[in-house]
Amino acid sequence: MPTISRFYGIVIQMFYNDHAPPHFHAVYAGKGAVFTVSPVAKVHGRIPKRAHKMILQWARVNRAALLMDWEAARDHRALREIPPLE
Predict the structure, then answer these.
(1) pLDDT tens, residue by residue, 22-45
(2) Which of 15, 50, 51, 85 could form a disulfide with 28 if both were Cys (CB 3.0 to 4.6 A apart)?
């Protein structure tokens, strides 16, 4: 699963040929969760509250880039790295 961003110990990844709706996986401190892109929301998993808030903030800012990576993954093209949360 390609890593598309890293920030504050959080790793954001996206699978090739993953099921709809567009989403990404976040891992932090050994815990993981899945977030939809539009709307940005956690759909399942467990992740610490502070990391959860940072992931939501990052995803809202980068929604267009996430959708572009989602489409690239569906077409088996290389995914682009998305800037980290600052």
Answers:
(1) 999 999 999 999 999 999 999 999
(2) 51
Give buried/exposed letters for 28-67 (b at 16+ CB in 10 A, else e): beeeebebbbeebebeeeebeeebbebbeebbeebeebbe
What integer pLDDT is reported at residue 71 of this predicted model? Answer: 96
| Residue-wise pLDDT tens digits, 47-86 | 999 999 999 999 999 999 999 999 999 999 999 999 999 8
With 80 as the cut, is the pLDDT of residue 10 above it? yes
| Burial zone of 21 (CB within 10 Å; 0-12 exposed, 13-18 middle, 19+ buried) | exposed
Task: Give the alpha-carbon dihedral of 31, 71, 68, 77, to 10 degrees.
Answer: 90
